[in-house]
Amino acid sequence: QVQLVESGGGLVQPGGSMSLSCTASGFIFSNYYMTWVRQAPGKGLEWVASIYSAGTFTRYSDSVKGRFTISRDNAKNTLSLQMDNLKADDTAVYYCTKDDLREQIGTSFDSWGQGTQVTVSP
After folding, report:
1. Which of 22, 54, 105, 122 shows its CA 20 to 30 Å from the CA of 75?
2. Segments in the chain below pLDDT 70
3. How far apart are CA 43 and CA 97, in angstroms?
4. Dist. CA 83–CA 9, nearest whole Å
């Protein structure tokens, strides 16, 4: 079955950097768009960034554009999110998701990881 396992969360100071990883299994990783989604305390889900199957094209929400970088290694079935210049507003649980290819990239997901907590605080 599909499994998405995130790692790399934790506590970081404002202005700092953190890298998240997601290891995928149970499907042909290189065939699928992949997306990071986050949920801040008391708020709804927020789309963060998506990457096309070959990794050649990426898309970012306005709130993270220029600070976050999504990437993938299809040989290792790994999705990554490099987060720089972190802000308190970036505090959230971050989820690795597998896109539903029947829908536009970054809009519908058929598998989710368990999530990893990122806390940005002094």
Report:
1. 105
2. none
3. 18
4. 11
* CA 12-62-122 angle, 5° bins: 20
Q: What pLDDT sits at residue 106? A: 86
Any residues with CB less than 8 A from the CB of 72 and at least 6 apart, and which?
29, 34, 51, 55, 78, 79, 80
Residues 6+ apart with CB under 8 A from 117: 9, 10, 92, 93, 94
The pLDDT score that the predictor gives to residue 101 is 86
The predicted pLDDT at position 104 comes to 87
The set of residues, in sequence order, having a beta carbon less than 8 Å from that of 74 and lying 6+ positions away, is 29, 30, 53, 54, 55
Asked if residue 29 lies in contact with residue 74, where contact means CB atoms within 8 angstroms, the answer is yes
